[in-house]
Amino acid sequence: MRKNPAFVCALLIVVIGLSSCHRYMGSRFYPATPRFESTYPGSVELLRRQPRRSHIELGEVWIRPEPGMDRYFVENKLREKAARMGADALVITVDRYFRDRVAYRHFRRGTAIYYERQIVGVAIRYR
Length: 127
Fold this sequence. Notes:
Elements: H1 5-20, E1 25-29, E2 45-47, E3 55-63, H2 71-84, E4 89-106, E5 110-126
Parallel strand pairs: 2-4
Antiparallel strand pairs: 1-3, 3-5, 4-5
């Protein structure tokens, strides 16, 4: 059975297009929450549990760090996304590694196998 070259080419374009759309970070507002002006990223607190102060939950911020990203880079990216939402703090709710291993290919360093990680936080604004 011969494969149609046009079909194979179209399939290749679709696969490349979908793989380039993979975002390593993002954010999402909760429905019916008030919108605020952006805050300064350096003033956004990173918390591991809900604060006792009265607050409003604005939405979620998530990131999937890659092997070359250090802790400070990841924390700054989380703060930047939360600050764009108008948050005063970001409560980290999920910090997990996925069970399946991923192959990371780098031009100079070769191939490394690692477990993909995801960090999710809830952006909050104090009342």
